[in-house]
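User: Can you predict the 3D structure for this chain?
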Amino acid sequence: MKRHAPPTFACWLLASVLPGMDREAMLGDLIEEYGLRVDSTSPFKASRWFWGQVCRSFPSIVWSLLWSGRLLISANIALGVYILMATLKLSTELMIAKLAAPGETARVILAPILFLATAAVGGCVAARIRYGTTLVLATMVLITVVVLIRIKICSVPVPWWYQFGFLTLGPLAVILAPAVLGALKTGTRSTDR
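Assistant: Here is the predicted structure, written as structure tokens:
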């Protein structure tokens, strides 16, 4: 009989907000129930159920984190990483401007690459410092992009999808980079045994 694994991103998302003392027990119970549901129904229905449980649990867990003060610690770490990301991005832009002296059009082309790379590195640093901080950092990145779009920071006219790319891919890079790298590390460890 083939064993099915629960949705990886749903597990990571829930684990990122669960307190450390409860994380293993709650995820273990949810994964165990998922296995029972896969055996009795189908993998699709079991995955849908799993996602439903994560989506229903997420707001109350975040609310309890907010009231317990643990979210404040994550917000402070995210702010520090955010400042590090901004410093890294600005210094890289200055180096590129001094070395290559690109025009405004070249900046429009290089900006998404630099932004996504900085967001991914920031997400990995935040996840390394404290589990779950990436969600707070992604929210900060999203707010920054909305403000920059609103004040029209780019002087070159760009299509709507260019701005939409920053709006969606920036926060996703913060969240997905540590999740993907974590999954890759877990995959290489299991094959090394």
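The chain has two domains: 8-67, 70-192. The longest helix spans residues 160-192.
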